[in-house]
Design brief:
Elements (H helix, E strand, L loop, with lengths): L2 H19 L2 H24 L8 H19 L3 H25 L4 H21 L1 H4 L5 E2 L15 H24 L3 H9 L1 H6 L4 H27 L1 E2 L1 H4 L2 H14 L6 H20 L6 H16 L3 H11 L11
Antiparallel strand pairs: 1-2
Length: about 325
């Protein structure tokens, strides 16, 4: 077995042993890190190719609310509700993505369109308060441990589910990164007109990566909602969570496989630190900190933490120049 294969086996063994050694509180934090790491990875699949979306809160909200509403009002199992949410998120991505690609809406204009999408979904959830609970949120009906209801009081089940989901997200990221369409997407991110001139189907490639990102984000929202058993439009849709997703993916390094996971570790640590240290004294402070750190990261570490560390490791020390005799 190669050294890389042995390292993967060791890491897999360590991750699998976590439920047997970690206390419940740290299990809770680790599950959140894995779930948000998956969601950030889904965003980075688009962001790394120049498709900067500020509307992933819309896909996240759809993924969280559709299975919850179907379960609460019609007793439809989340195993069917989550695929329905994924389909709806994909359709939403196509509704936004097709006109943007067709009309060549790029750059900050594309970001503004996606921002509007996230706010539309947020306001729609709040407006339908008779069904969604509005700004007060919605509690998912509990029936105890049940695979049919996707409810597990024991955190071990959700840890293993979150771990598998996170690993699957990394696999999709790697597939897109090493796939045959990678060069096409890179060319499109540099110059769409030049890419189209050499025969690249710009619309197909852009819509493909948008659909993948939207579907994965909706899936992450559905699993997260089932774990928390309570959903709120302010935390699972709209600008605030969209900014959190962008911040986490960029500051960790959206061009690196584990960059989004590092970003999730930072965001969860920040949220938990503010909650434990200040309680309710600084509600909303995390969003302000996200914005400040995001600006600093873009200026000083455009490739994120992992990218900066990797670049520093590649620098070779300058050789001392011998003095002239």
């Amino acid at each position: 077995m190669s050294a890389r294969g042995l390292l993967l086996v060791v890491w897999a063994a360590l991750l699998a042993s976590v439920p047997f050694v970690a206390p419940p509180y740290f299990m809770h934090l680790l599950i959140q890190i894995l779930l948000w790491g998956f969601i950030y990875t889904a965003w980075s699949i688009m962001g790394r190719f120049g498709l900067v979306s500020l509307g992933h809160g819309a896909f996240l909200g759809v993924g969280a609310y559709v299975p919850a509403l179907l379960w609460n009002y019609y007793a439809v199992t989340p195993w069917l509700g989550m695929p329905a949410a994924i389909v709806l998120a994909v359709l939403l991505g196509l509704v936004i993505g097709y006109p943007c690609v067709r009309l060549r809406v790029v750059g900050h204009y594309f970001a503004l369109v996606t921002l509007a999408l996230s706010q539309v979904v947020l306001l729609s959830i709040v407006a339908a308060r008779d069904f969604t609970g509005g700004s007060l949120g919605l509690t998912i009906n509990t029936i105890g441990q049940s695979w049919y209801a996707f409810q597990f009081p024991d955190k071990t089940h959700f840890y293993l589910i979150a771990l598998a989901l996170w690993a699957g997200g990394l696999a999709v990221w790697h597939w897109v990164d090493r796939g045959i369409g990678r060069e096409a997407l890179d060319a499109i991110s540099e110059d769409e007109e030049a890419a189209a001139a050499v025969g690249i189907n710009v619309m197909r490639e852009k819509l493909r990566v948008t659909v993948i990102s939207a579907a994965l984000t909706a899936l992450g929202g559905g699993i997260y909602a089932q774990y928390m058993m309570y959903i709120n439009p302010e935390t699972l849709s709209g600008l605030a969570v969209s900014l959190q997703i962008v911040f986490g993916a960029i500051i960790g390094g959206m061009y690196e496989l584990l960059g989004s996971t590092i970003g999730a570790l930072l965001t969860i640590s920040l949220n938990e630190g503010l909650r434990v240290g200040f309680g309710t004294s600084f509600i909303g402070a995390a969003n302000t900190i996200y914005g400040i750190l995001l600006v600093l990261c873009i200026i000083f570490m455009p490739r994120g933490i992992i990218g900066a560390l990797r670049g520093r490791g590649r620098r070779k020390p300058r050789r001392a120049v011998a003095p002239a005799e």
